[in-house]
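Notes from hallway chat w/ T.B., transcribed later so I don't forget. T.B. wanted the structure written out for a chain they're using in a teaching module, and asked if we could keep both sequence and structure tokens in one place. Agreed to drop them here.
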Amino acid sequence: MDDVSLADVRHQTATTEQRWRAIRERTTRGMLTFNAGGVVRLEGDLWAVRSTRGGFHRVDLGAETCTCEDFNHYGRAHGVNCRHIYAVAIAHATRRRHRPCACNGGWVSIGQIALDPETGEEAEEFALYLCRRCAGR
């Protein structure tokens, strides 16, 4: 047996609900960290993210790794990124100049399922809207 104690969370199997809850919590905290200005790009895929305990944690976005305790003790074992990785991912996405656009020829199609009042059957309804991103160019 390795030097990890049996009480360590890495020996516990996380349920799907526990994983989703952990992801929701960490993405929310990542957004708060990003909004507070706690993310700095160093070079390439390396970033520094402010720690709540003072100092910074180093994040490698390409490898999706972080030096924080949460990632090393829980996230790596359960496939859940820490708030620092999420904060860097948000910062990286906002830095890109050409974000992907979901329009088709400058138009966005939005559909919904609606009940036909006469027959009571479900029918798909679509509407086309001018893409705000493309129209602003």
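Follow-up for T.B.: Strands lie at 39-43, 46-50, 56-60, 65-66, 107-115, 122-130. Might be a good example for the class.
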